[in-house]
Amino acid sequence: MSNILEVDGLRKVYAKSQFVLKDIDFSIPYGSIVGFIGENGAGKTTTMGAILGTLKKDRGAITIFGKKVDVTKPKIREDIGVVFDDMNFSSHLNVDQLAKVMKNIYQQWDNDKYNHYIQLFSLPKKQKIAGFSRGMSMKLSIAVALSHGAKLLILDEATAGLDPVARDDILEVFIDFVKDKDHAIFLSSHITSDIEKIADELIFIKNGEIILKVNKDELLHNYAIVQCRSDTFHEINEDDVLAYITKDEMLNVLVSNKHGLPRGCQISDFTIDDITLLLMKGENNERTHS
Ligand SMILES: Nc1ncnc2c1ncn2[C@@H]1O[C@H](COP(=O)(O)OP(=O)(O)OP(=O)(O)O)[C@@H](O)[C@H]1O
């Protein structure tokens, strides 16, 4: 069993907004960090909610730790650490009082670990949570998620609102977490540089549909963004073209195989932000050979 989480044909329709999560499939290997990337409203939170059972899915199977499980059951919730944007702990509590509450919720609660993260994240122990900034609340959510013996972390925008130093500390904590090969992390972020730093696999979602799943090393070694003229563009192997944007006479093209491109293609350096922009704003590979 090499995957900690498998998602098969997950579908969710919001009748009110007519948004459809379109039968998505993906898996999270043990020992890996998988980054989930997409624009606002693409369906990231919906996917995570449907996996966790906080949202009712319309179709699809979720397999966690090798079993088709009801993720809302307390037993399995021990093993999954969750950070969502809008997590609300009782705001009248302070950090120490929250620990006492968590101890009653989670059998595997580890107070030493919790205190370690509270200290690492420089959180005040006696101040009421109500007075915490967004970044402080995020850090607290992460400290809790890491302190109840979870094997899988599902993190929705967990680094949003954190300053660069705190983000860096937390990314290190995530990298450490998956050094244990029984662990894995599934995280969404708009800060693609964070994902670039720590993720092993990337999943791109657009309008409720997964448009690209790729291993980061493969992306860095084989993919490229190239500039070329229209006639050269038509010489690129069609299967290698993932997306393109036309600008004046030139095209910016995302290709999945930078080896063996026709002459006249200029390869430029790219970041995952550049790839995201091309995938989200560009046209897909259904080229018209005019
Ligand atoms: N309760 C709801 N009822 C109807 N539509 C909803 C509901 N919740 C979300 N949606 C719609 O579903 C779509 C996907 O939303 P979702 O929150 O999953 O996106 P996201 O990728 O997490 O976005 P963001 O990056 O802004 O957090 C959006 O169009 C949103 O308007």
From TrEMBL:
Sorted UniProt keywords: ATP-binding, Nucleotide-binding, Transport
Superkingdom of origin organism: Bacteria
Residue span, ABC transporter domain: 5-232
Keyword Membrane annotated: no
One Pfam family in the UniProt entry: ABC_tran
UniProt key word Ribonucleoprotein: no
Gene Ontology MF: a single term: ATP hydrolysis activity
Identification of the protein by name: ABC transporter
Species annotation: Cerasibacillus quisquiliarum
